Amino acid sequence: MKAIRVHEIGDVNKLIYEEVPMPEPKPGEVRVKVKAIGLNFADIYQRRGWYAVQTPFSPGIEFAGIVDKLGDGVTELAVGDRVGTASGHDAYAEYAVAQAARVVKLADGVTFEQAAALLEQGLTAHYLATSTYQLKLGDTALVHAAAGGVGQLLVQIAKSRGARVITTVSTEAKAGLARECGADEVILYSQQDFEAEVKRLTGGHGVEVVYDSVGKDTFVKSLNCLKPRGLMVLYGQSSGPVEPQDPQILNRKGGLYLTRPSLIHYLQTREEFLDRANDLFRWVAGGTLKVRIDRTFPLDQAVAAQTYMEERRTLGKVLIIPL
Question: Which residues contact 206 (CB under 8 A, 6 or more apart)?
Fold first, then answer.
């Protein structure tokens, strides 16, 4: 089969399109004929070496397709099932494997493309808004990168829970997307100081929670946007890793809380995974959650796809579609 492989850590040109052996599912796994692959910044972090992974490897953890083969002991799924996962591996390929416990059957009316665009980022948005901080009526949240894949979903879920949502974006086009998702306030950080704007918009009080996927460029000012005892949720680092901080800074800025979650911490059991995934499918099928697919690329153009993401040109989810 064809796949993208990384033989050494480095820039985007380390993504090599080549022929590789077909993967075989181990006990408890399923093999999937991949119909759509969701791109995430974690894929880029792997290729850059920011997330440790043994070479050679194929990037990617999120895909949707048709079950092609079952590993020993798998009973909840069958060959031919339409499925998706955000916990697979070596996803940039025509066939990929995943643990059956982290694979969900697609609801009727949910396409392969929607599932691949939804699961990783949708599950992330779900746990951020419902578990890491349980947003409720009257809360105010600051969401960075609101026009990105997670950002758009997070804004919608936050609004559905009654929160006031302040967002940051880089361009007018992205501001329009944030507003379409229901953002109450949109700050163009390329033209405005987001810290000053958040303080102005909250009457100097700050927000209950900041959701920050940007990292290095926004971290310190984000802390300054919080109310006393507010929660800083750092869940990504698209601008680079945050420099080491003295924990005493949390005390000086108001007894703040800081967490650095990852999706795996909020999918501790199959039941938790299915609950979150089926919530998302239900919301999408019912029209209350919109999934925006920005662009699709064929498998042999993975370099172009990751470059598009690295340049922060995305206006939604980026997919790879194996031919």
Answer: 198, 199, 224, 225, 226, 227, 228, 230
Q: Are 92 and 58 in contact (CB under 8 A)?
A: yes
Parse the chain into domains and list their residue ranges: 2-119+266-321, 136-260
pLDDT score for 23: 96
Q: Which residue has the tokens 């643990």?
A: 99
Peptide bond before 247: cis, by omega within 30 degrees of 0?
Answer: no
Q: What CA–CA distance (Å, rounded) separates 158 from 98? A: 30
Phi, then psi, of 83 in degrees rounded to 5: -140, 170
What's phi and psi for 105, nearest 5 deg? -70, 140
Which strands, in side-by-side order, build the sheet including 164-169?
185-188, 164-169, 140-143, 207-212, 226-234, 257-259
Residue with tokens 């075989």: 24
Domain 2-119+266-321 homologous superfamily, CATH: Medium-chain alcohol dehydrogenases, catalytic domain (3.90.180.10)
pLDDT at 241: 86
Rounded Cα gap, residues 124 and 91, in angstroms: 18
Half-sphere exposure (Cβ direction) of 245: Cα atoms closer than 13 Å? 15
No. of helices (H) and no. of strands (E), the chain: 9, 15
Domain spanning 136-260: which CATH class is it, in words?
alpha beta
DSSP H helical segments within 212-258, as ranges? 219-224, 248-252
pLDDT of the residue at 267? 92
Residue type, 247: P
Whole-number Å distance between alpha carbons of 264 and 127:
10
* pLDDT value of position 149: 84
pLDDT along the chain (323 residues), means of 10: 97 97 97 96 91 92 97 97 94 97 93 94 96 97 92 97 96 94 96 97 98 93 98 90 92 97 93 96 92 95 96 86 91
